[in-house]
Structures are given as structure tokens and as C-alpha cells.
């Protein structure tokens, strides 16, 4: 049981490192650290967000993430409700997400679901697939006040 709890904890930290790598847009913090995101994936991993796009393999994920700050210069994830299932060296995870973003000069809230697959590697748990499905979105009447 202790090993299972350690695996779940490491997978939760992997997801948190993802949010920390893509979030930014306030003083001193740039959104979408492409290298930071790529480091969280297996070499042949995929990032798929449907209508928002994505990438396959380290090169594809890096290419997509390198455009992220221009497309979404402010991003702030709140990820909750983890459902993590571990089976040996493989795992799945489902999370709810609320994303506060700016895109096309418009402050927005997106809500959706992350459905991910992870594998244990010699360097720890990594994403094999990080998948986001948008459930709803709304434009906010005012822009973000950034500090």
C-alpha cells in the first residue's frame, strides 16, 4: 500500500509540475515554458487539447508550447478532483480544471477535464498522453489585473 500511495503522490506532483510550467503572465513569470513541459513527457508522448491543438513527441510538444505565450499570454490552472489509477508501471488520471486565461486580448475562464496516461520511467513518472477536453468557457467582462 505504501508504494501505491507514493506512486499516486508522484503522479499528483507530475500534474502540478505541468501546471507550473504552463502558467504565467504576471510580473516576472512567462507562460508556457516549453522545455519545462517537454521534460514531463515520454519521448513519444502526446499533448492533445482538441480545439486548442497539441503536439506529438518532444519536438511536436516543444513546437506547440513555444507558441503558447503568444496565443495565451496569461494562464492560471486550478486542477482538482484527482482520480488516479495505478497498475504497475502504468497509470491513468482524470482531473477537473478551471483555467483563467487571456487569449485574443480577452480574459476568459475555461473549464474542462484532463484525462491522462502516465508511465513509470527511469526518471520517474512521465506523461504518455495529456489530454484536455473543454466542457465550457466564458468571456469575462473585464481583463485581468496583473501584479
Describe this structure in words.
- By secondary structure, the protein is an alpha+beta fold.
- It has one domain (2-139): Nuclear Transport Factor 2, Chain: A (Roll).
- The chain is built from 4 helices and 6 strands, in the order ααββααββββ.
- The protein has a 6-stranded mixed sheet with strand order 2-1-6-5-4-3.
- A hairpin with a 2-residue loop joins β3 (74-87) and β4.
- The longest helix has 21 residues, at 2-22.
- The radius of gyration is 15 Å and the shape is globular.
- The termini are far apart.
- The mean pLDDT is 95.
Task: Tell me the layout of helices and strands.
Layout: H1 2-22, H2 34-38, E1 41-48, E2 54-56, H3 57-66, H4 68-71, E3 74-87, E4 90-103, E5 106-121, E6 124-139
Parallel strand pairs: 1-6
Antiparallel strand pairs: 1-2, 3-4, 4-5, 5-6
In short:
With 147 residues, this protein is an alpha+beta fold.
**Global outline:** globular
CATH topology call:
Nuclear Transport Factor 2, Chain: A
Structural class call reads alpha+beta
Q: Identify low-pLDDT runs.
A: none
How many DSSP-defined strands?
6
- Our Rg estimate from Cα atoms comes to 15 Å
| Helix and strand sequence | HHEEHHEEEE
Q: Biggest sheet: strands side by side, in what order? A: 2-1-6-5-4-3
Key phrases:
147 residues; Nuclear Transport Factor 2, Chain: A; 6 strands; 27% helix; globular
